User: Fold this.
Amino acid sequence: MPRGRKTALTIHLTAEERQTLLAWQRATTIPAGQARRARIIILLAEGVPIAHIAATVGISRRFVYKWAARFQQEGVAGLVDKGGRGRPAGPRPQDRQEEPGTDRA
Assistant:
């Protein structure tokens, strides 16, 4: 067990959740952030201190707590990237080609 401060935050993973998170860590086709979040949860379940997880993964302790809370509320689905802010994907209006036979007036 790693040394460091103890936290009241404990996460218990089912065998299925652990398998999913381990698969995410090994996958090369998912976003890097999702794999990083899987690593955070696995380390928390192993009892690694928050500060050590933050240093290992390369984020602040605040975000370790954030993803732990989201996992506790929503499970594995809470770790997946959600759509939201930013411009929606797709062609811009000026890049669209006009259909033949239509006139611009």
